[in-house]
Amino acid sequence: MLPFYGDVALMQAAVRSVMAQTHQDWRLTVVDDGQEPGVPEWFASISDPRVRYRRNPHNLGITKNYQQCVRLAEHPYMIMMGSDDIMLPNYLACLDDILREYPGVAMIQPGVEVIDSSGKVVWTLADAVKKFLYQPRITSRRVMGGEELAASLLRGCWFYFPSICWRTDAIQKVNFRDDLHVIQDLALVIDLLKLGEQMVVDPVVCFQYRRHAVSASSAGALSGSRFDEARRFFVETADDLEAFGWPRAARAARRYLSSRLHAGTLLPAAIRAGNRSAIAGLLRHAFGPARP
Fold it and tell me: 78 near 171, Cβ under 8 Å?
């Protein structure tokens, strides 16, 4: 499933990367939530029957379109690919190999490399922090789940959502929350872990995640909307996990250290921009008490 809104050229590159897979047993459904000209005509020119395209009659927004993609999924496993990301040619072959070893697993996080807006492989501070501070040391394929994985992700969300392969019936049972617009992917994984589902983490690099400034999460960061949502999520999740019987995960959520650190790293940009509202919001999130 490829929910689309935004840059047409990057979306076309994403589609071509699916069509270039060495593993041929796939179907791609693009759900267009925009009105960019020429897009329906471009898809009409594709003769591969495995590629399907539909345009929403009106804009649904990110979360509603994600929910629709989950509902439209028809096959046992699905990927919610970003419309600016790239599948390396071995991506689906890697997933197929993992599923042969772990049939029925709910989530697969393969190896990922980060690219910039031009497609160049880059190494950012955010990704270095993910890898060296938060991500478990994975040198070979590993199954994770329960409170161990929940606590790890709440300390620092190290997965790359568009690269994850999901068992369709599991994600359809939970789906994305209506009240979240930026941190909905972490909420989804925590909900699945509470249901007893597990994730396979594999170090083989087979997916390219595009990181650039123009994104919903980046746009919401300096305005403070991202962190208002994050603070509410972490505080509510801490209470919920405490009652669920996962005290270590609850403590990690209550501290939300990685989210505080992220807010702190954005302070220089807010100061340079002279954005007093953003400065106040970032200071409150980075150093203030936990509160919804």
Answer: yes
